Amino acid sequence: MTHTTMVQSNDAGKAANRRFRHATMRDFPQMQRIYAHARALMASNGNPTQWGTQFPRESVVLDDIVNQRAMLLVDEYDGHERILAQFALCPGEDPTYLNIDGAWLDNNAYVTIHRIASAGLVRHAARDCIKWALKHYGNVRADTHPNNKAMQHVLESAGFARCGLIQLIDRPTDTTRIAYQRHEW
């Protein structure tokens, strides 16, 4: 078994230039590896069904890239760019959010964060993605599986309000998600 050393971004000045950018098709293979890592991590932390072995679907990730919804948090480490985290930033009304057992904070325009995953290279990468979305878009919604305690903690520590429960419309089973919203105005 091979073990990889996790390196923090502030490690001896070797990492620099943390920034966000849109993903390109060139990033797709690495993005798939990061999603595989996230699925394994979720399963080992008591959440084996949120993404199972097939989510996010390859076709959805490719569509995110083509439509410039796929965002990457990257840095430079030893002269090479590396992906620290990735997510889909979806503007406009999300059909899954039309029906909620609870209530959204408002009915204003919003963006949704979906499919967030950390590469596991640095601490707080998911939190940094969420903070960036809030800074640039103001009104942000997200949802997560009831067993995904890590993401619930990230969202709640970022000031998101738990608004209720939604049902995914693209899956036959295991569809309940906790819905969150925050605005940064």
TrEMBL record:
Keywords: Transferase. GO terms for molecular function: transferase activity. This is Histone acetyltransferase. It comes from Bifidobacterium olomucense. It comes from the Bacteria. InterPro entries: Acyl_CoA_acyltransferase (IPR016181). The keyword Transferase applies.
